[in-house]
Amino acid sequence: MLNQRTYAMNELQIIHMPKKSYCEVNAGVDGVEYSMVGYEADLGNRLTKHQMALLAEYNPFEMVYHLTPSQPVALYDLLSDMLELSQLQEQTALLELKAAFYQWLSGVIQQYHAKPQAAKPTSPAELVTMTLEYMLKHYADPHTLDTLAAAMNRSPGHLSNCFKQVLNRGPIDCLIRLRMRKACELLTETKLPLYMIASAIGYRDAYYFSNAFKKQMGMSPQAFRKHDNKEDITSQAGRNSIARPNEPCYISIHDNDNYYQHMNGGSDNMFNFAKMVPASLLLAFGLLLGACGSANTGNSTNSNVSNHTAPQTTSEATATADSAANGGTRLVSTSMGEVAVPDNPQRVVTDFYLGYLLALDVKPVGTNRMFMENPYLQDQVEGIMDVSENLEAIVAANPDLIVTGDAQKYEAYSKIATAVYLDHSTNIREQVKQLGVILNKEAEAAAWLEEFEEKLAGAKKRVQALLKEGETAVVFAGGIQKELTLYGNAYTGGTIHGELGIPMNENVIRDIDPKTGWATISSEVVDHYAGDHIFMSVDTKKESFDYASDPLWGTLPAVKNNKLYEIDGYRFYFSDPISVMNQIQDIANMMEEGAKANVAK
After folding, report:
1. How many Cβ atoms from other residues are within 10 Å of residue 335's Cβ?
2. Which of 55, 87, 113 is the last residue of a domain?
3. Which terminal residue of the chain, N or C, has fewer Cβ atoms less than 10 Å from its own Cβ?
4. Which CATH number is 508's domain given?
5. Same domain (yes/no): 513, 567
6. pLDDT by residue (tens digit) across 151-172?
7. Are 379 and 361 in contact (CB under 8 A)?
């Protein structure tokens, strides 16, 4: 309320208040942000008599003016500059402040007197274009999703949704792309030290810039500059074309609603929106690559470097596309280098590590369907989205962290959100520890490991009580078939031989390559590998075999002694913590039940 008149402040507005005015601000539930700019009008003796008469009759300094800017971005930016300058102590700051004020006042007057245009809602593509133009001018300024939204006079959620609708990525991701492209230009074209480059593109110091650059580009700034000195990657010879030959960009050719969706599985609505954004802007931000007919994501680091394109990932603690309001980031070491991960990730997507995340009390928002069908996990997967390595589905899940075991897809995932690669060939204990660090769940990881070792010790004790000295076991898959799979200490055999420590037949030890972990054998040689106990992996829902009646299998001591156990191959396919913990119990239970049955006979 200003001098008994009420103004609704639903968007950026400017009000001129005369001195001695009464102003009351009702912030409401959501709050309000406002700035007050004070000035003193000193006209001196420069007015003519005619001007003095007009001033007495119509004094503009004592009137109320109200303006809803049609182009608020420039005014907001100048206002921010004025605030920053007003807090400086340098002598030149006052002069710069006065210059900024005159520039701001000129813009206000121009927009105030401009011919009013009919109200027209800003489309998502128009808003994205305005924001990209703003970023292009102010990429060196510190920005978060909130500050960008304020500059656009929109809510953070609305701005983020428009970017996703138009470009399938968030505004901060676009800003990071632009900054990395600018960094590449400075590294290539100048000999400026890293701290100056960092400052020039909006990073507070060389350390954060170096980490962000390595995350985005796959190599350190120093390595990039050294690489550039050896090979002019800005030349045509050293650059991958934005679109492959014979696969032109959508902008001038293939202007067809179905082309992108047919070729790349994309959303044609998003594609149509993207075509409304000027191509020059898309190119400046490295976004034409994602909108062209070429969907080749197979090129790894070299592709990123040669195109000066930064994958869509988080880097600073300031913001991610939608999630960093929950906290900052932490640097964790991975086989792909150091990665800045969210302190407390809220929307995790994983391909292989569903059981690992659930063991650490982290329920992902998306994973592959196959792992959701794991019998040991089915009571814990309600509400989890099936993404099944579909990039569009992963984008729709709006992750703030992607945990993958697929090195070949790491780059593609990194373009969607912060991605961490975890080598699934390492042992389960090491994987749990690593995920504990990545997810900031080290206490939960330690607790799980303690529980696992306790239950494993109990199961081992039960199993060892049923094994006579010198007895061995073998793990087959397939049932009574001409060919079977023979496992060593890996895959289905990992739980039995590795965790429970049931000894293998010496022929299995000799003939199975530890690097492979399995082999295909003829049923004619099963007696060569058969141990005192046989675990046969089959599809228990569809098949079971009468081994005692078979002329070959019936001669084996394990079959004669009722020590062949059919196990559900699907249940034992999985090797996550929850599955393994249940598998060791299943084996112990199975062997105890067999022993009881033999006693009953």
Report:
1. 12
2. 113
3. C
4. 3.40.50.1980
5. yes
6. 887 778 788 888 887 888 888 8
7. no
Question: How does 535-561 read in b/e, with b if 16+ C-beta sit within 10 Å?
Answer: bbbbeeeeeebebeeeeebeebebbee
Let me know: does 362 contact 355? Beta carbons within 8 Å: no
| Cα maximum dimension of the chain | 125
In a domain, 119, yes or no: no
Residue type, 333: S
User: How far is 424 from 427, CA to CA, in rounded Å?
Assistant: 8
Residue 445 in any domain: the answer is: no
State the Rg of the chain over Cα: 33
SS3 502: coil
Say if CB 312 and CB 204 are below 8 A apart: no
For residues 137 and 252, state if they share a domain: yes
Contact of 351 with 389, CB cutoff 8 Å:
yes
Q: Which residues partner with 332 through β-bridges?
A: 339
Predicted TM-score (pTM) of this structure: 0.48
| Total residues belonging to the chain | 601
203-225 burial string, b = 16+ CB within 10 Å, else e?
Answer: beebebbbbbbbbbbbbebeebb
Instruction: Answer yes or no: do 200 and 287 share one domain.
Output: yes
User: What is the 3-class SS of 329-340, one letter each residue?
Assistant: EEEEEECCEEEE
pLDDT band at 314 (very low <50, low <70, confident <90, very high): very low
Domain assignment present for 489: yes
Same-domain pairing of 271 and 130: yes
Structure tokens at 24: 């009351």
pLDDT tens digit sequence for 511-565: 998 888 889 899 999 999 999 999 999 988 888 899 999 999 999 999 999 999 9
Q: What is the DSSP pairing of strand 419-421 with strand 533-538?
A: unpaired
Print the domain residue range for 82.
14-113
| Cα angle 303, 305, 306; round to 5 | 70
Tokens of 375: 């019998």
- The CA dihedral of 520, 522, 527, 533, to the nearest 10 degrees, is 40
Residue 156 and residue 281 in one domain: yes
